[in-house]
User: What shape does this take?
Amino acid sequence: MPNVPGLRSPYSKVGRLVYFGRMIDKIRLHARGALPADYIKNIGKAFDARACTFLRINHDELTAHVLSAATPDDAAALAWAEKTGGARSDEDCEIWCGFMMKRGWRDEGAEILVKRIKESALEAAPIMTMFDYLDFDEGRDSVTARAWEQ
Assistant: This one.
């Protein structure tokens, strides 16, 4: 995939959560017609679905709130999600972030990760997780930047 302006790294946090900001970016980019076609088929699926399940919200409802004037920024979108689905503890969020940041490393996602790395000709990159893959595939080097520590 090419670099997609306005689409942040999955490691970037909104509040206590990784990935949530990326999902919000995808919603906004899609609404503007600026999300590449390869991304559109997975809106509301895969990691988006996992994030919504964790937050106990519906992706279509999140989309409506993100695109409405009532939810002008990421913090407001997360506040809506927490109000709608219920608050998560710090421990819940720590476990969520740890799971998501390590997805594809020695788990059932590893086979998919290897396939994606080959498809993108990124075998030489130091990719260990799906988040690493997404970053390298989009032209970011999360490993050198140690994005998981930010």
Remarks:
- Residues 33 and 40 are 10 Å apart (CA to CA).
